[in-house]
Amino acid sequence: MRFCLLAGLLSSLAFADQLDTLALQHKVPDELVPALRAAFPEASIQGIQGQLLIRAADQASFDRIAAMARKLDQPSRRLQISVQQRDSASSAQLALDGRVVVSGQGIKGGVHVSAYDQASSQQLLQTLRVMDGGRAMIELGSGRFVPVWHSGFTGEWQTAASGFWAEPRLVGDTIHIRIYPKSSRFERDGSVVMHQMGSDVSARLGEWVLAGEIATTVSLSKGQRQYQVWLKVDAD
């Protein structure tokens, strides 16, 4: 059955100048075909029975495709993904204080006005290991029970956690990674601040890159909050 299927494909593409198959040693065709098609859009490259079926314009073009395929056809490597989530906030507020005294002598009073800036920042670094082409996630946090009065005391659990989900793919010395980080924490006033994003990033191994950032401005307090995600991928 395998021979008949392959023979049928070969006969249907008999008009090609150069047509041949290339056996893979470590990868499956679906892992290599997208990268090969992007590098050689003029060629026809398909996966069949654990092999690559390549149709090229000439022998030289076929040899270039085969050379790249052999370079990519390497054993899966173990990757270490490091993600740093940075959350900073600043605000400019106005403070007003004073004293007024009312007496039979008249009214005495004083008012003091001052402006001041507030700033806070939080940085969280998390790492995990995953095989090239695999998927992994990490999430660490805490929970609390919030009581609520509704025809009697009841309540709900709230969770604040930080982590990320990642899917890396290594091509040569370049890492292509799809990542979904999120971060949430409890504030002093009882509220929960949460950030999350999704990003597709390409970078060189061992290089810190900015995966994404969110900046928001609150006009009432003239404050600004900035959330950034930096990542680095190393290979064993």
TrEMBL record:
Keywords: Signal. It comes from the Bacteria. Residues 1-16 form the signal peptide. This is NolW-like domain-containing protein.
